[in-house]
Structures are given as structure tokens and as C-alpha cells.
Amino acid sequence: MTFLPVLLWSDVLIWLLVFAAAVLGALSARNPPLRSAWRRVGRSRPGMVAATVLAAFVLVGLLDSLHYRPRLESREGDQQAVYAIEVLSVLDAVATPLRTRNEKTYSSPLATRAYAKEAIEVRAADGSLRQTRDFPRLKYGGRHLENEARRDADIARQVLVAELLATLVFAGLAVGCAALWARRNGCSVHQAGRALWRGETDFAWRAVLATLGVLLLLLLPVAALCVDYHVFGTDKVGQDVFYQILKSVRTALVIGLVTTLVMLPLAVLLGILAGYFRGWVDDLIQYLYTTLSSIPGVLLIAAAVLMMQVIIDTHPQWFATAAERADLRLLALCCILGVTSWTGLCRLLRGETLKLRELEYIQAAQAFGVADLRIILRHILPNLMHIVVIALVMDFSSLVLAEAVLSYVGIGVDPTMISFGTMINNARMELAREPLVWWSLAAAFVFMFALVLAANLLADAVRDAFDPRLAGSS
Amino acid sequence: MLAYILRRLLYAIPILIGVNLITFALFFVVNTPDDMARMQLGVKRVTPEAIEKWKAERGYDKPLFINAGAPGVGVLTDTVLFTKSARMFVGDFGRAEDGRDIAREITSRMGPSLAIALPTFILGLFVTVSLALLLAFFRASPLDFWGVVLCVAMMSISGLFYIIGGQYLISKLWRLVPISGYSGELDAWKFLILPVLIGVISGIGSSVRWYRTIFLEEIGKDYVRTARAKGLSEVIVMFRHVLRNAMIPILTGVVVVIPLLFMGSLLTESFFGIPGLGSYTIDAISAQDFAVVRAMVFIGSVLYIVGLILTDISYTFVDPRIRFE
């Protein structure tokens, strides 16, 4: 084997989430109200645009969740395979040029020379070496260029080729999509193409295709250029900013998704118990969530994270590698965020359960002597699903934003873990530099904005589709 | 009314005791004082004597719950639970790592925090309610549509970018106001204007959208149709009927945060170097000053519970149907 698979805890949870989503999808397909709600989401154009963008982010995140340790070059006769201490992911392997080609320090996007002047040796016309202060050539950025003046032409050529390729891929996708649609509806490909173009399909295919087209047109040139240049520049230690952005995506997704995995069982279980059994169970659970929610969120998180740091620092023997420690810290942060944020959903579910248990069909079930557990599982839980789904998608964006703030305050992810929060935190003093270093912040801003905006738009579409109050009015 | 408030206050006591126990558990049971000492002194080179000294200096050397060796009531009072946690109810928060009295520090830092938070709150409420009313008035028009789009875009931007961008544009590029700092004198306004402005703008997205939904929900109700049917103009309907009735849900969200204004904002205060409670908390977090964080958690909860009680009382002013039962 040339590599040793490594299963980090957060990987386990991420793949568990993928599995849970698949199960949820299968369950929704069998439940008519949920199925029609998801159909409504599929009809929403902004929702499907957002879902396509999110899918791109999720793809990056999933690629970054398959970890391994590469095998080291071993000498002849070594029986035992030796693996590197460094834990890499599939994404790291794909983005090897981005990961390994580090400059000395800052360089601006697409630059061929460093950002600050240095004392360098220049060969003069007569062949003698001379010391001057100038911007040195970058080690990797634009190294393939014989003549730096040809940089713009080279970039233009690469972008053009990439755009042509993007157009071809897009055309292929569009034709494939039309053919698929034509097959399912039993019409000609030409008719299907026209229906797609006019947006007459039930599922918002046109929105998905248009988004894919825009994504291809934007990302393929970036992918083409990032081999030879630093598309978004490099940061203080010379690391490529685009690579950091790619790595941040996984952290954001883990925070936004795994937290719900912690929060959901607590909120659903306690909410239903309180609403269904009432009496002292209700009093106890209400007391619990009133007490927890009366501590301001940031402070409770701060206190809990400080305590977690003490545990981590006093037990260094628990962690084999730095990646493992950072990973467990990320998970602990998710747990803390989950424990501090289940109260709102719990309150909603309790109220809804109180309403449901008074309805005739549940009264009837009770009169027939159906066991409580069965009533809860068969009759109450399915009728709460819409609230759960809405809460999940609504929480995602706020959790991603919270991660940035918490990392700034110093109670977020491990400082060695790349995330939007640590990127912003490292870059915030750069605007005070002369000349200005803006690319790190700008890149973090653009990608974080795209992620959160897509999440917000999808949340809106899901809420509109699932909320029965809104469904009646529109 | 008085009986109602009293009952609400009594109801708050078990919650505060719960908060107190949670903080105690977090700070003393999850990690023992020995762990904290080891952490503060450095894990590698630490002697049992140094740990004992560290604990004795801070009063952590007592038993956690029951001190069997102490005379009389000392069995219960001469413990960490009583001296460090229960004493917070009477405003005794102990000393910070630098030896200063936390309670005095907090009272002196409330002023700067309020100087930022109060104008931000009032101006923000005014601006967001007006904008939401405007969008609701022109509902289903292009103005409304693009307004909502703008709101969603604005709420997708992290608060950090508002502050970083605002500081860069206004203070560094245009040099209109100082980039950070604070003054207790009359010229404090030039330090306050930028944080207040940024605070208001960063809150616009989510608040306007939320208030707009509330207004639209009210507009769909029967009494609004009646008001229109008797020939009232749309402006009068909006201001006299819709705005007043929409105040109830708006108040729920707003009154709760008023007492919390004392706590200040973590981000704003640390970026603008304002010596308020927010920056105090941040400094305590980065210096791992557990006593201060514990005190802030407790005060924050007290203020939140006060906010809840104020919310209940304020309901009775805006909605006479609600009785104190």
C-alpha cells in the first residue's frame, strides 16, 4: 500500500451525516407531505441556484474528508512500511501544487514578483554581479515564463482555453440534461431543450444549469491558472490563499453540520417528552432549557471552550498527531455549540407537541391503548419533521458566521486549523500595511459570502416549502 | 401588578441558582483547581508546592462542597462552592488575576459599554423599523423585492467584515475619525460615531427582514381590511393600525436585549479599543482569567432574566388584553 487510510473523528461524523441525509431522503420519498414539500423546494429557482452552489462547496468538503498518511520512501530491505506523520486528504493530493509551492512571504494575486523589495543580486550587461534593492522573482509564481513581460498574454491564453473548455463542458451538460428530460417525458430532445430554455420544467432545471454554467466559467480559469500562478496571492508565510480557502470549506461545513447532529437528538427528544408527558417532566425540561438559554450564548461558549482547552492542555498524551488534536478540538467546539443552541428548537417542538397531542387522531390512538412510544414515533415525530428541517437549514448559516467570530475571539477552532475565522484573524492587521495587503481578506470575504448567502437562500426556499402557514397563502 | 412582578422575581431565583451551579460545575468540577493551576503555571515544570501556593492565593484550596473540618456553619460556608459561587449573589466576584476587584472593575467599565451600545440600539431600532415599514408599504413592488435581496445579502456578511471594512474606509482611507480609542471627555463622540454607525449597518439585514415579515403578517389581518374598507388612507392604516399592532412581536425581541446592553459588544469594543465590558471579557478570555469569565457569565444571565421580566411587563403596556394572571 502506498498510503495508510486515516479516519479522523470528524470524518466519521461527516460521512455519517451523508448517510443520514440519504436515509432522510428515502424516508421523505415515502412520506407524501414531505415529498411534495421537497418538490416545492425543487421548483424554487433561487433555492436551486443556492443548492447548486452549496453542492460545489459540499463536494470540496467531502474530498477533504478522506484522509490518509502517505508512505515514505523506504530504503531497500526495510520490512516495515513507514508512513508520514502528516495527515493528508484527497483534496490535498489533488491540490498538491497549491499546497507545496510556498513562497517566502506575501505576493499579490497572479504576481511574478514578491510584494516587498529585497537586496538581490542582478547580473549587469557586462556580466558582473551587482547588489540592488528590487522586487525579487517569486520561487513558483509564473516561474515557467521566460520573459515576464509575456505574463498578461500567458494569463489571457490560459483563461481563454479554460473558458472554451468550460463552454464545451457546459454544452455537454445541457444536452445531457435535455436528453434525460426528453427520455423521462417521452418527447424529442429538441422539445426538451426548448422546455428547459423557457424554464417550463417542474424541477428548476434551468436555474441549476445556469448556475453550473456560471460556476464552470468562473472556476475553470481559476483551476487552470492556479497551477502556474498564485491566483489569490500568498499570505504572510507564503502559503497560497486559494489553498487555504479550499481547506476552510471543510471546517465551515463541519461546524455548520456536525453541530446539528449534536443538537438534534437533545432538542427532539426533550421537546417531545416535555410536550407529550407534561406534568413534572415538562417542568423539569422547561427549567433546564430556561436556565441554559438565560446564559448569553457567547459567554457560555467561552466558558466551555476555556475549560476544554484546560483539558486538552493537561492531557497531551491523548493525541497522537497535531491533526488529531485539532480535529478533536473542532469536534468539541461542535458539541459545545450544539449543547448551547438546542434550547430554541426544543421550545418550538414542545409547543407543537402540546398542540398535536390534543388532536383527535392522537386522542383516538391513546383511547385504543397504543403505547406512548409508538404514538410518539408513528404520529408525533413525522408531524414535527417540517420544523426540524427548517431549523436545520436556518442554523447552518448562522453557525458558519459564528465560527468566524469565535475564532477571532480566540475560542474557536485550533489556531493550526485552516478556517475562514483563522484566515480573517491572521489577515486583519494586513490592511494597516503599506502597500496594502488586501487579497487574503478579499478572498475569505468572497467565498464565505458565497457560502453563507447560498445557505440563506436555500433556507428561505426550504422554509417557504415546509412551513404550512406559508404554504396556504402562496 | 406588584404581586405579578414579585412572582416573576421569585420565579427567577431557581433559574439563577441553576446558572450558578452550571458555572460552578464548568469551572470547578469539569477541571479540578489542580488542573487549572497546572495549566496556568505550565504543564511541564510544575511542583506540587507551586500548585498549592497558586490555589491558596486564589482561595481554591478549600474543599468543593463540604468542609468537614471547619467549625459551625463553616462546614458549608468555608468551601469553594460558597466563597466562589454563592457569594456572586451579593455582588462579590472576587479578584482578577491582576489582583483588582472584579466588581469595581465592572462598574467602572459599564459607562463606555453603554456609550456605544445604547446609541447603537436606539438608532438601529429606529432605522430598521422605518426601513421595514417602507418595504412593507411598497410590498410586492421592485423596491420591496430588491430590498429583501439586499437584506439577505447583508445578513450573509460576517460582522467582522463590517468592522474591518468600515475602519479601513472611514478611518484609514478617508481619515474622517480616529481608527480606535476612547475618551471620557466631551470629545468622545468622534470615537463613538464609527462603532455606532457600523453597529447599526451590520444589524440592518436580519432585523429589517424580520420586521418586514411581522408587518406583512399584520397587514393580512381582518382589522386592516376593515380599516381600508371604511376609507382610511394607506398611510394612516400603516402608522395607526399596523405599526401599533406589530409592536407586540417586535417588543418581545427587543426588550429582552435592553439590560444586556450593559455587557457591551465583544467584537466592536475589541476592534475599537473601547475600555468597556466587552473588551474586558475578551481580555479575560485570552488571558484565561477564569474568575472574570465566571463573573461575566453570571452577570449576563442576571441581565437576561431582568430582560425577560421587563418583556412581560412591557406587554401589558402595549396590549391591554394581557392580564397579570
Please tag this protein with its features.
heterodimer, A: 474 residues, two-stranded antiparallel sheet, 5 strands, 68% helix, 5% strand, B: 325 residues, mainly alpha, 72% helix, globular
Structure description:
The complex is a heterodimer of chains A (474) and B (325). Chain A is mainly α and 474 residues long. Chain A has four domains: 3-100, no CATH class; 112-141, no CATH class; 148-225, no CATH class; 241-471, MetI-like (MetI-like fold), CATH 1.10.3720.10. Chain A has 18 helices and five strands. Chain A has helices at 9-30, 32-43, 45-63, 90-94, 96-100, 151-185, 189-198, 205-225, 241-277, 279-293, 297-314, 322-341, 343-357, 360-367, 372-409, 420-427, 439-466, 468-473, and strands at 3-6, 67-70, 88-89, 118-123, 129-134. In chain A, the strands form two sheets. Chain A has a three-stranded antiparallel sheet with strand order 1-2-3. In chain A, a hairpin with a 5-residue loop joins strand 4 and strand 5. Chain A is globular and about 105 Å long. Chain A starts with a strand and ends with a helix. With 325 residues, chain B is mostly helical. Chain B contains 15 helices and no strands. The longest helix of chain B has 36 residues, at 102-137. At the A-B interface, helix 10, helix 11, helix 15 and helix 17 of A face helix 1, helix 2, helix 7, helix 8 and helix 13 of B.
Provide the succession of SSEs of chain A: EHHHEEHHEEHHHHHHHHHHHHH
Largest interface: A-B, 45 and 49 residues
Q: How are the strands of the biggest sheet of chain A laid out side by side?
A: 1-2-3
Range of strand content of chain B = under 5%
- Say which CATH homologous superfamily of the largest domain in chain A is assigned: MetI-like
Q: Count of helical segments of chain A?
A: 18
Indicate the proportion of strand residues of chain A: under 5%
Please tell me what the overall shape of chain B is.
Answer: globular
Average per-residue pLDDT of chain B, rounded, comes to: 85
Number of helices of chain B: 15
Taking all Cα atoms into account, the compactness measure Rg of chain B is 25 Å
- The CATH topology of the largest domain in chain A is given as MetI-like fold
The sequence of SSEs of chain B as H and E is HHHHHHHHHHHHHHH
The count of strands of chain A amounts to 5
Architecture (CATH level 2) name of the largest domain in chain A: Orthogonal Bundle
CATH class categorisation of the largest domain in chain A: Mainly Alpha
Radius of gyration of chain A from CA coordinates: 27 Å
